[in-house]
C-alpha cells in the first residue's frame, strides 16, 4: 500500500481557461471550489491536501510583472492559513497542510498559529516549513534581498528550534481543569523558553495550550543537503522530486541515514514523491493526453511560462527573457530552489539550447500515463520496486485543477487504487499524524 497527497501551487487561480474552467477565474477566491477539492480528495482516500505558498508578484522575467499577471503565474495568491480550519470543517479525516515561511513568520507567531490551527482542525493541520525562494518575498518582509541559500537554512534550523521550544513550553499535565479548587493550569508546568539565537529571540511560554497532535505535522520540500538535514531533524513529511524508482530508493536511503544520524526512527518520515497522472478513459486516451501536453510545450504561451518559471526558480536572480532562445543554456545557478533549478539545467550538459530545454520534459517528478487501471498498476509496480510504503504527491498536469480533474483522479484513479487495496479506504487514526502511520 502507499499514500497519496495532492499538491496545489497555492491558494491561487487553477484551471481558469478552457472548456472545464466554469467560472473559476472569479470563483477561486471564495470557499466553495476548495471545499469541493478537499472533500473530493478525502473521498478518494488521500492522506493530505498540500498547499504551497509564496508572497510576491514576481517581476524578474523581462523586468516586469506583465507575464506574471497575464498568466496568473504564482500571483495573485491568497493566504492559505485561513483555508485550513475552513477545509477541516468540511472534511473529517484528511490532513490539511499549509506552507509557512521562516522569513515571514516570527517563531512565536508560527508556534501560536500552529497550535491554534491544531485545535481548530482537531489535530489535522500540517505546516510546510520553507525558507522562501525569491528576493521579492524577502523585500515584502523588509529585507533588502533574500538570504543566501546556506544562511536561509541556518535560519530555518534556528527557527524550528525556537518553534519547537515554544511548543514544548507546556509540560504534560499542565492543564489541571480542577473546577472545584478552582485551578485551570499548573504554573509550575508552564515554562519560559528564553530562546536566544542569531536570528530569533523569544521568551515564552506560549500562551496557547498544546493541540491534539502536540505539535502540527511538519513538512519540508527542499532537496539540497541542508534541506534534507532540516527534514531529517524535524519533518514528518517530505516532498521528493525524482524521475525514477532507482532515484526514489536512493533518496529514501539518504534520508534514512540522515534520520538515524539525528537519532530518529526512519519510519517517522513519510516521503511523498511528486507525480503526474495523464489519465484517460483507456490507455490510448491517456497517451493522447500526454502527447497533447508534450505538443503544447511549443506553444508561445507555454514557452513564456516555462522561462518565467525558470526565472522564479533561480530565486529571481536570472532573467531568462534576456537570453537567445536558440543559444546555449546559461549554466548559472541562482539562489532559489536549487534542487529544482539543477534538475532543469541538467539539459545544458547535453548541449541543448534554451528552446530545447523549455520545450522538453519538465523533470519535475514522475509521469504516469494510461487508463485508471494502467496507472494504478504502474504506481503499484514503482512502489513495490522500492519496497517502502511511501507515497505519491500528485499535482495536476501543468498544475491543472478543475472539478473535472478532481473527478478523474478521485472517482477514476483513486477508486481503482482502492478496489485493489493499494491505498487506504478509510481513516482509523484520530489525527493526521496518526493516520500517516495507519493504512485504513
Ligand atoms: C515540491 C516543492 C514544494 C515547495 N513548496 C514551496 C512553498 O510552498 N513555498 C516556498 O517558498 N518554497 C517552496 N519550495 C521551495 C523549498 O521549500 C526550498 O526552499 C527550495 O526548494 C530550496 O531548497 P533546495 O535548494 O534545498 O532544493 C518547494 C519546493 C518543492 C520542491
TrEMBL record:
It holds the Pfam family Bac_luciferase. The keyword Flavoprotein applies. One of its GO terms (molecular function) is oxidoreductase activity, acting on paired donors, with incorporation or reduction of molecular oxygen. Belongs to the NtaA/SnaA/DszA monooxygenase family. Gene3D superfamilies: Luciferase-like domain. FMN binds at residues 53, 99, 149, 153, 224. The keyword Chloroplast does not apply. Residues 23-382 form the Luciferase-like domain. Keywords: Flavoprotein, FMN, Monooxygenase, Oxidoreductase. This is FMN-dependent oxidoreductase, nitrilotriacetate monooxygenase family.
Amino acid at each position: 500500500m502507499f499514500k497519496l497527497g495532492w499538491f496545489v501551487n497555492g491558494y491561487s487561480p487553477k484551471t481558469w481557461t478552457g472548456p472545464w474552467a466554469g467560472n473559476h477565474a472569479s470563483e477561486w477566491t471564495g470557499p466553495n471550489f476548495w471545499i469541493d477539492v478537499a472533500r473530493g480528495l478525502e473521498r478518494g482516500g488521500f492522506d493530505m491536501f498540500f498547499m504551497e505558498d509564496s508572497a510576491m508578484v514576481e517581476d524578474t522575467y523581462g523586468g516586469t510583472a506583465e507575464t506574471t499577471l497575464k498568466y496568473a503565474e504564482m500571483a495573485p495568491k491568497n493566504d492559505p492559513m485561513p483555508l485550513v480550519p475552513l477545509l477541516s470543517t468540511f472534511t473529517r479525516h484528511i490532513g490539511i497542510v499549509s506552507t509557512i515561511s521562516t522569513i515571514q513568520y516570527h517563531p512565536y507567531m508560527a508556534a501560536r498559529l500552529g497550535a491554534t490551527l491544531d485545535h481548530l482542525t482537531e489535530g489535522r493541520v500540517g505546516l510546510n516549513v520553507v525558507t522562501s525562494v525569491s528576493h521579492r518575498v524577502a523585500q515584502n518582509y523588509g529585507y533588502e534581498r533574500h538570504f543566501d541559500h546556506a544562511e536561509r537554512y541556518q535560519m530555518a534550523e534556528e527557527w524550528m528550534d525556537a518553534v519547537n521550544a515554544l511548543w514544548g513550553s507546556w509540560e504534560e499535565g499542565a492543564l489541571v481543569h480542577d473546577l472545584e479548587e478552582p485551578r485551570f493550569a499548573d504554573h509550575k508546568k508552564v515554562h519560559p523558553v528564553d530562546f536566544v539565537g542569531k536570528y530569533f529571540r523569544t521568551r515564552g511560554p506560549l500562551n496557547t495550550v498544546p493541540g491534539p497532535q502536540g505539535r502540527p505535522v511538519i513538512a519540508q520540500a527542499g532537496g539540497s543537503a541542508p534541506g534534507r538535514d532540516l527534514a531529517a531533524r524535524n519533518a514528518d513529511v517530505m516532498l521528493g522530486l525524482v524521475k525514477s524508482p532507482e532515484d526514489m530508493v536512493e533518496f529514501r536511503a539518504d534520508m534514512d541515514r540522515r534520520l538515524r544520524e539525528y537519532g530518529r526512527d526512519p519510519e517517522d518520515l513519510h516521503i511523498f514523491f511528486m507525480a503526474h497522472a495523464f489519465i484517460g478513459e483507456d490507455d490510448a486516451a491517456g497517451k493522447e493526453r500526454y502527447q497533447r501536453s508534450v505538443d503544447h510545450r511549443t506553444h508561445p504561451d507555454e514557452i513564456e511560462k516555462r522561462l518565467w518559471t525558470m526565472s522564479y526558480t533561480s530565486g529571481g536572480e536570472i532573467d531568462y527573457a534576456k537570453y537567445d532562445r536558440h543559444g546555449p543554456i546559461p549554466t548559472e545557478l541562482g539562489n532559489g530552489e536549487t534542487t529544482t533549478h539543477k534538475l532543469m539545467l541538467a539539459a545544458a550538459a547535453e548541449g541543448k539550447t534554451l528552446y530545447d530545454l523549455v520545450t522538453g520534459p519538465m523533470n519535475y517528478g514522475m509521469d504516469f500515463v494510461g487508463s485508471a487501471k494502467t496507472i494504478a498498476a504502474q504506481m503499484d509496480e514503482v512502489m513495490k520496486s522500492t519496497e517502502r510504503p511511501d507515497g505519491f504527491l500528485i499535482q495536476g498536469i501543468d498544475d491543472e485543477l478543475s472539478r473535472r480533474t478532481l473527478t478523474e483522479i478521485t472517482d477514476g484513479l483513486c477508486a481503482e487504487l482502492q478496489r485493489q487495496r493499494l491505498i487506504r479506504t478509510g481513516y482509523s487514526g484520530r489525527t493526521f499524524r496518526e493516520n500517516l502511520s495507519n493504512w485504513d
